[in-house]
Backbone:
DNA sequence: CTGAAAGCGCTAACAG
DNA sequence: CTGTTAGCGCTTTCAG
């Protein structure tokens, strides 16, 4: 049997309230008895029961991070940020992987609430917010742009500006026929990146060619397949702005297999700046997001909302994207 | 206030025991009243309190996966495996990242136990088992070879054989001066891979040159730095077996920066076969581990131990590594 | 089929 | 400084 507060109380001959006080370092316990209690607790191998405590305290000191794809190196970076900061504040974090499956997300959200997590940080699998987050009663912060009247705080990169920057860079480097190979079509981030792309095209008087705008999923495989299709259909662009880096990897792969010279025959820019995008063999030009920081901020906002549940104010943090020029695009100088 | 079982009992005019029975689908409730209860529960937005339930039931239906580096793409693959399978069985999983920090691991293990997780799957940050896992009372399964008298189940690849295979491959491909650039020196996996390397060297009458055996950490940066040091010290090998793939990436990077032709001037083989090791620009020859499967098996063993806590038997699963020949080594044919 | 009551391990008034 | 007591929300005998 597990050793409880009562066992140690009995052993020492005090009431278990006293033991509780001692263990929790609360005032009003004689120094000597406290010491005895601590010693005995250690000796008996006492381990506080957070479940019981949670039941009375009404908080669990655990939060959840729900993400769509832990296999995309973008998310582990974020996860590291939230986890590290959370644990600094004494919180554990559940890491839930929805696999972009809205049903799975639903199930997680339900379980998380039943387990009484104190708050949730989520990158939704889909963006029809109300559908999914409707039943959540704990504080939530999203990695997503959110409708203006939303009751949730959020933090994200300015995706439209990112898309704009990426496309502008390719235009200025002299690419003429620029495709957008995107990810999940019903994702805000994706849409906004595409909007930025279109905006840049317009700004520079390029015409928007819908046959060059193709969405799929945020996977390497998807990038590979749609690029291959593009090449084999004869509708070959000389530049592609990919919805994210792993898609860009797929594009790169297809290009290589078809003997295309990157960056001369084909320029590529990605989004995220995941680890290994900077390997010399890859050298992917991309739009960087401050992943770790995003995780960090998200927890801080969340923890703050948890603490001040009463007077909550929704915060929206929009971060600046940054273009990282590497070798999958021609530089201006070479033009 | 949260709606509880009592609220809905009061509303309908039954005892809350009955409500409990109905909600949990237990026998002995009149069909009609059950329906009423279910309806009311939904209407009132009742959400079972898993904390309270856990307190009485003595289990939480949550397990933990503690890993050293979520940023190494090897681990997310495993994580996906455990998470998916666990959730199929109705378990949530805490994902904890120790960052190879044994103190952090300690803290997590403590918190996890206090939160009464039902079991723990862990790749220890260090390998002096007894030190770390001593206080754990719940079932544990390790991703690590374990002493023969250990009380824990474990599952892992045959690292020695992997190291052997890797080195043998390089020898047969004609490389003459093969270095081992390893990861954490006090890691079993690392040591075993090194043993396999030595074994192959001996088998083929190569002499073992300790100046060619260098450990560091399981990071790209570490691989990059030690390779660079090797090159700049003039002690240039013509082959390196890296402790894992991300190290190999670093080696690759250094090689490239120093104008070495891979695979002709330098052959490289990694370990793990992480995603993106197969990109055409990388094409890393490596030793594959069945990552997802390892995660899956780990949960299955764990869940089984949880169920049969009484008659537990320790299981040791040793999986076979597989050499994946790609382009960072010469093939036999080209020799 | 249903209700009463005990208790899971702990915290927090409230008395002393 | 310390003990008594009442719950937290739920499951589970044990009676009826």
Residues:
């Amino acid at each position: 049997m597990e050793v409880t507060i009562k066992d140690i109380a009995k052993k020492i001959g005090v009431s278990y309230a006293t033991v509780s006080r001692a263990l929790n370092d609360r005032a009003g316990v004689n120094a000597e008895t406290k010491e005895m209690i601590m010693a005995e607790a250690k000796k008996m191998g006492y381990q506080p029961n957070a479940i019981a405590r949670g039941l009375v305290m009404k908080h669990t000191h655990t939060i959840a991070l729900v993400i769509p794809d832990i296999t995309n190196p973008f998310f582990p970076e974020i996860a590291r940020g939230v986890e590290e900061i959370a644990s600094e504040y004494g919180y554990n974090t559940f890491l839930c992987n929805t696999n972009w499956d809205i049903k799975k997300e639903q199930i997680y959200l339900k379980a998380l609430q039943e387990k009484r997590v104190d708050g949730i940080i989520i990158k939704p699998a889909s963006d029809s917010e109300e559908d999914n987050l409707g039943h959540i009663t704990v504080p939530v912060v999203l990695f997503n742009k959110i409708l203006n009247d939303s009751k949730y705080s959020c933090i994200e990169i300015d995706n439209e500006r990112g898309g704009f920057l990426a496309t502008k860079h390719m235009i200025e480097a002299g690419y003429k026929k620029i495709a957008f190979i995107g990810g999940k079509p019903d994702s805000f981030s994706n849409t906004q990146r595409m909007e930025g792309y279109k905006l840049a095209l317009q700004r520079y008087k390029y015409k928007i060619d819908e046959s060059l705008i193709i969405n799929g999923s945020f996977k390497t495989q998807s990038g590979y397949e749609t690029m291959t299709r593009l090449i084999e259909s004869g509708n070959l662009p000389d530049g592609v702005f990919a919805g994210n880096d792993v898609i860009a990897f797929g594009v790169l792969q297809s290009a290589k297999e078809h003997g295309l010279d990157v960056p001369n025959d084909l320029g590529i820019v990605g989004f995220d700046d995941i680890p290994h995008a900077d390997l010399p063999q890859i050298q992917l030009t991309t739009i960087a997001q401050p992943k770790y920081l995003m995780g960090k901020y998200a927890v801080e906002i969340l923890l703050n909302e948890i603490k001040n549940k009463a007077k909550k104010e929704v915060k929206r943090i929009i971060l600046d994207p940054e273009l990282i020029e590497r070798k999958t695009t021609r530089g201006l100088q070479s033009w």
User: Anything to note?
Assistant: Residues 5-48 of chain A form a domain with the 434 Repressor (Amino-terminal Domain) fold (CATH 1.10.260.40). The longest strand of chain A covers residues 62-67. The radius of gyration of chain A is 26 Å.
